[in-house]
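Input record, target 12 of the design panel.
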């Protein structure tokens, strides 16, 4: 699937989850709901996808777990906070660099207003 259409579909599903559940749930509830709905629509979804971080000489120096990895193309990081903060943006950009992926989406379900941002590395 073309990345723009995939991003549009993820955005629509996230909005539907936001409308249905509202704010106030733990991040894991939104993660599970997103996974369920994406799989229902035929997408391959990996939850808590491990990302290894390497130093310039190839030495493993740490690891992360991205919330969702959709269709082996799109990293999705979910939050349930009052608002998207600079550290959340730094986190997804770090995940994109670590995974060598090009496209990512940051979604915040904790605000009364739907918040979503797309990132391209």
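The sequence produced for target 12 reads:
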């Amino acid at each position: 699937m073309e990345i723009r259409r995939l991003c549009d579909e993820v955005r629509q599903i996230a909005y539907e989850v936001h409308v249905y559940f509202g704010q106030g749930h733990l991040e894991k509830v939104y993660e599970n709901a997103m996974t369920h709905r994406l799989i229902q629509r035929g997408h391959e979804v990996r939850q808590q996808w491990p990302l290894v971080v390497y130093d310039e000489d190839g030495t493993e120096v740490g690891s992360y777990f991205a919330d969702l990895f959709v269709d082996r193309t799109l990293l999705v990081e979910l939050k349930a906070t009052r608002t998207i903060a600079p550290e959340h943006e730094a986190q997804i950009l770090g995940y994109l660099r670590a995974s060598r992926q090009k496209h990512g989406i940051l979604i915040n379900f904790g605000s009364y207003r739907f918040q979503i941002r797309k990132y391209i590395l």
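The domain at 3-120 is CATH 3.40.1350 (Trna Endonuclease; Chain: A, domain 1).
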